[in-house]
Specification:
Layout: E1 3-7, H1 9-12, H2 14-17, H3 24-36, E2 44-45, E3 52-53, H4 55-63, E4 76-82, H5 85-90, H6 95-111, E5 128-133, E6 156-162, H7 183-197, H8 206-231, H9 237-255, H10 266-275, H11 280-294, E7 297-299, H12 302-308, E8 317-319, H13 331-337, H14 349-365, H15 375-385
Antiparallel strand pairs: 1-4, 2-3, 2-5, 4-6, 5-6, 7-8
Helix pairs in contact: 3-4, 6-7, 7-8, 9-10, 9-11, 10-12, 11-12
Length: 386
């Protein structure tokens, strides 16, 4: 079965696949891998018309295609496409056929995005390049010693693709929520495409062919999900306790940015986290709730938002106005609210009457002060309201 994956730098190697800067680090790694396999260097390909590309060509191509992205924003994504040994044999392990398959796979990658306005991007909208590697080495499993070359056909394809479309108007993020890019659907579609390429599956044209492809992709997606469910390890009680302790800190931080009446209940957040098995989508959505609060926006039905990873009916966010700070006291008003400088006067009735008159005058000076209280008390109340 074909293995197709969008690599996440957080789990697949920050040093190699870090993607918030230049693509140079990734191309250097791919060059090094090629040289270790006895090749003079990595040879890249893109569209058929582009011909052969060098590593420098790829850097020039991708590093000049992230207009509008911030300094720390993701600039590109890395993918791996790995046919199994039987599929490689049926293709004759031919580079030309693998290049043709890669172009078809990237057409499916582009079409898998659900963009606003119903726009359907295609392969022509992508800025990307790929290279073919013919060897793999063991990572130290029971199958062989670490660094030992794996036997048989091990050809696979590395792809780097810009996070912006060709016009640099749209950000394409395959590691986002499933409603924008469903990675399981992508893997299933690419898997069926490989089966077609090697001749093990025949799909006709027209509506009948489209229906057959959709049915096969749906079946493949269920198989992928079933395999993932079997291999995923259950968290230990100690691991759950550690994650819940972290959530205590995260929720407290989020609540510090939300007004009263909209703060999150930490136990409900933990309940959702357990349902989602503390996955990346859950943590990303919790982070979005925090950033929205910082921007003066509230998330409607936050627990459902965390649970589903997608917006509900209607507008997901609603604006709220933080309560303005109390007006600063003028020097004159500050003097009138200050205690008498001569404490001996305070014991007399005349002093008390004079103090009352001072306070009455102060109330007339500022229409925004509605009760007689010290500046410290008002500041404390304001902090509590926020």
């Amino acid at each position: 079965m074909l293995y197709a994956k969008v690599l996440n730098p957080a789990t697949n190697g920050k040093k190699v696949y870090g993607n918030t800067g230049s693509v140079r680090r990734a191309t250097n790694y791919l060059e090094q891998e090629a040289k270790q396999a006895g090749q003079p260097g990595a040879e890249f390909f893109s569209t058929e018309a582009a011909g052969k590309l060098s590593a420098d060509d790829v850097v020039q191509l991708l590093d000049n295609n992230h207009k509008g992205l911030g300094k720390d924003a993701v600039k590109f994504h890395s993918l791996v496409l790995s046919p199994d040994q039987e599929q490689l044999a049926l293709l004759g392990n031919a580079p030309q056929k693998l290049q043709e398959f890669t172009r078809a796979a990237m057409e499916l990658y582009a079409g898998n995005f659900n963009l606003k306005g119903g726009r359907e991007p295609g392969e022509k909208d992508l800025i990307r390049a790929a290279t073919i590697h013919t060897e793999r080495k063991n990572r130290g499993t029971n199958e062989g010693s670490q660094g030992e070359e794996k036997p048989g056909l091990q050809t696979h394809i590395h792809v780097v693709v810009s996070a912006r479309d060709r016009e640099q108007k749209i950000t394409l993020n395959p590691l986002g929520t499933a409603d924008r890019f469903n990675r399981v659907s992508f893997q299933a579609a690419v898997g069926i495409e490989m089966e077609v390429a090697v001749g093990r599956v025949s799909i006709g044209t027209g509506l009948e062919g489209k229906a057959r492809r959709q049915a096969l992709e749906s079946e493949r997606a269920q198989d992928i999900q079933g395999r993932a469910a079997k291999t995923k390890k259950e968290l230990t009680p100690e691991q759950i306790a550690k994650k819940d302790a972290r959530l205590n800190v995260l929720v407290a931080r989020v609540n510090g940015k939300l007004p009263d009446g909209y703060k999150l209940e930490v136990e409900q957040v933990k309940e959702v986290a357990r349902e989602r098995k503390y996955d990346d989508v859950f943590y990303r959505k919790l982070g979005l709730i925090e950033r929205n609060a910082e921007a003066g926006k509230l998330t409607i039905e936050p627990y459902e938002y965390l649970r589903t990873g997608r917006a509900q009916k209607g507008t997901q966010l609603t604006d709220w106005e933080p309560q303005p700070a109390p007006p600063p006291l003028t020097n004159r008003l500050r003097e009138r609210l200050s205690p008498p400088r001569n404490p001996s006067v305070g014991s007399s009735v005349d002093s008390i009457e004079r103090r009352i008159n001072q306070l009455a005058s102060a109330l007339k000076t500022s229409s925004k002060i509605t009760d007689v209280r010290s500046e410290q008390e008002r500041a404390r109340d304001y902090e509590q309201e926020m």
